[in-house]
Amino acid sequence: MFKKICILLFIFIILCQCGERDNENRTNFTQRENNAVYYYKNREFAKGKEFYEYNYMYSLTEKEANAIGDYYKLSYNEYGKLKSSEYFINNKLQSRILYFFAPDNKLTRIEEHNDKDLIYSAKFVYEGDRLKEVTHFDKMLQVIGKRVNIIKNNRVIKQENYKYDKKIMDKYFEYDANNNLLKEKVFIGLNPGNVRYYNEGKIIKEEILNNKTINYYYDSKNRLIKETHYKLNKLIYSVDFKLNKFGDIICAEFYNKDVKPHGIWLFMDDKGNINLEKKYVNGKLDWVRKKYFSDRGKLIKEEIFSEKDELIHYFTLSYDKLGNLLKWEKFNPGKKLVESRVYNYKDEKPVSRDHFKDGILLNRETYENGVWTNEKNPLDPNREANTVTDR
Asked: pTM, whole model, 2 decimals?
């Protein structure tokens, strides 16, 4: 749940950035058609440890959203400004962020609620047309943080960030003669942090600590199509993005320092599901994973093939009517069940799962605060339970 709330918070951060535009989110949520309502689901790219995560919001119709049950609903006011962000699980509201504007359409307050109570809020203060200060409050309306923009010649030249009353970070901004943002520098105390370079409103280069550099490339419609990652000025890897006619990413291709296919290539269907993965090692295909999804977007089957297109094993997943995972099963090519996990729920929340191998109970794990903990292992109490990603 915390992760879902963080994603919603990420949406409103778009409105809080002191620069002229947001450069991390690749979908524009801040200005849409008047009185419009949009539906999205979040999709994540899972890759090897050497790659960082990519998160994208994938658009849905209302019918698709209701069928899937897990989605975000964004509503806009009569001026095309975002007025609410709502997150649903099994079509039940989990959290809501409300946006409040002054008569001149400046954002003045944000409130985040769970299904019952206020849990977070923020207040915005301006100097002319520029955002001057953002103050963050907890559910008891106690100040938990603040961001102060230093404005000169109608430009934000510095941003001071505080956690409670302690400064934790400064950002410095540089512009060209036409007030276009060129550079953003971060300092943690006296220590320099990341540096970003911009051109025509787009981030084109990022210098990261540990001597890492990322270059960004766009097509004629300003859509990201390529990234190159360097360390000590030497290419580490690159990513090419393939887009459909709507601008959604349908393929992510990874290359190593020798520009050979390397890592897990990801392919998406027209609903944003990653339905095909291909792993390459130094230009050679290692394995292929095919995924199948239900109409609700739930993963129901995975097939793993060798580089010679031979089936190695496959998994099936089954769910209850609310979309909770009930059983995960692994089969060999001869369709023999070799491993399984059975999930148990109470009040629609997971409480335990039993791990079987060749029909023998290996262990039971209990679930608490988002973590599975080994409770019992009859065969070997010192053996760690294998982990499986919950869908």
From this structure: 0.70
